[in-house]
Amino acid sequence: MNPHHTHQSLSLAIRNRITAGEWPPGTVMPSETDLAQEYQCARATMNRALQVLADSGLIERKRRAGTRVMPLPSSLAKIEIPIIRHEIEKRGAAFGHSILMRETAPAPEKVARQLHLRKGTRALHLKTLYQSDQEPFAYEDRWVNIQAVPAISTAPLDEVSPNEWLVRDVPYSSGYVSFSASAAGSEEAAALGTRPGAALFTVSRTTWLANRFITTVTLSYRPGYQLQTKL
Amino acid sequence: MNPHHTHQSLSLAIRNRITAGEWPPGTVMPSETDLAQEYQCARATMNRALQVLADSGLIERKRRAGTRVMPLPSSLAKIEIPIIRHEIEKRGAAFGHSILMRETAPAPEKVARQLHLRKGTRALHLKTLYQSDQEPFAYEDRWVNIQAVPAISTAPLDEVSPNEWLVRDVPYSSGYVSFSASAAGSEEAAALGTRPGAALFTVSRTTWLANRFITTVTLSYRPGYQLQTKL
DNA sequence: GATGTTTAATTGTCTATACATAATAATTTC
DNA sequence: GAAATTATTATGTATAGACAATTAAACATC
Predict the structure, then answer these.
(1) Where do the domains of chain B lie, and which CATH numbers do they carry?
(2) Are strands A75-81 and A199-209 parallel, antiparallel or unpaired?
């Protein structure tokens, strides 16, 4: 093979030297140019290798100031927020959903703020229960900005869940997500077949597409649900 | 300014064309070479721009097969699991921690399984309370594999929290994380100043470093805590 | 028709060079 | 001495060219 270094191998090599303690956290490492010299590679290649490490949060790079090993590496986890149907079907269970409520109503203040609507503007309010083998799996409370997605008014939400309809129709939007624990209200408790006050894992999302706020949703999972990932 | 395109602007431009539906999910986009031609930039630049989109999961690239728009973009959220001290100090509060318990004991079965220890092997068991401005913030229940990290036996955990000590001493390990909601037990409730049964946001982690299982930890945050991120 | 081989298209990535940009350090000015 | 200016240095990134690696498709062989 040729004597070239790949940016991957360089990345790994540098990473190892960092973890071995050669440059303790907080210290400045040698410059790109020096490292490239040392490994006999082009500066661009070393640049790429170091950028990978910078992306992963291991080092911080600043023009003129040099490359610095980060003091405490915060763990970065990639979480894939699964489509509920996929999650259920992956476990071999039958997916089902039922629309518990579907109405157009003035958005309450909190929702209006999240969707950047004027207070009192009407929006579509949906409550949906997702089932795994007939058992309740998650309870969804969703508001949709009708102005941004007029087509949803006529969507066949009995066949395709609101979640999937929106993902299919308005893809690649960006948004905020927050994870928390909340006590089940009487409505969620009844839907999920648990007692009010039970600890529910809750995911709230607000998504938009280029200035247009689409939807805000709160998903409460049945008790015991865990969201897992590797890091 | 100069007429150059940056890979960032190109990335954005392509992303916009995708979200606008020019290339629907599943279809192959024009080749790097063609796009570079179209935008009058070097192929390397377009390559970098497309790599960014590939990293974010929007497109998939294969040699010879070309670049394909991914069918259903499962929402991928990057979550930074914050170091508790940083999280508290970022909000301008004073960080504190106190070790509620520190003992060496035989690992219960569940812990032994997670740390790949033989049942009954002794391990370090720590219970720690993290405080924000004297108020309880999070409760940590941690087991540490002494064989993997013997130095922890003599670590000054009153000064540096177990969390930080481990991160500093055994950095860059990999691990599993799971998020869930759980009802406060009497111990957590007392420590966090809430009532038993309250809904707590809980993060469990097991980390290892090259075959050696280091530690498994369950963190319960005070009621109302939210883990937020953008996607 | 099934299987193996060659071809060609496409992305992956390194090199060398050039210039842009940012931030520190040194210098000048007042 | 403080403030403003200039110089220096490290990283950011674009470019053109070259070759490697992968694999779909076309072709050849049995």
Answers:
(1) 7-69 (1.10.10.10), 84-221 (3.40.1410.10)
(2) unpaired
Per CB-CB distance under 8 Å, the chain A contacts of B225 are 180-181
Instruction: Report chain B's C-alpha Rg in angstroms.
Output: 24
CB of B64 lies under 7 Å from some atom of strand C:
yes
Phi/psi at A224 (5° precision) = 95, -10
- pLDDT tens, residue by residue, B105-117: 999 999 999 999 9
Structure tokens that stand for B80 in this block: 């930074």
DSSP result, A134-152? TEEEEEEEEEE-TTT-GGG
Residue A57 corresponds to which amino acid?
Answer: G
3-class SS at B1?
coil
Instruction: Tell me which chain B residues have a C-beta less than 8 angstroms from the C-beta of A181.
Output: 180-182, 199-202, 221, 223, 225
Contacts of B182 (CB under 8 A, 6+ apart): A181, A199, B199, B200, B202, B220
Q: Which of A125, A211, A142 is nearest to A173 (CA)?
A: A211
Distance B64 CA to C5 C1' (A): 18
Cβ within 8 Å of residue A52, ≥6 positions away: A7, A8, A11
Distances (CA, A) of A170 to A207, A213, B13: 10, 11, 18
Q: Report the percentage of chain B scoring pLDDT > 70.
A: 92
Is any atom of nucleic acid chain D found less than 7 Å from the CB of residue B63? yes
Length of chain B (residues): 231
Please give the average per-residue pLDDT across B140-157, as a whole number.
Answer: 89
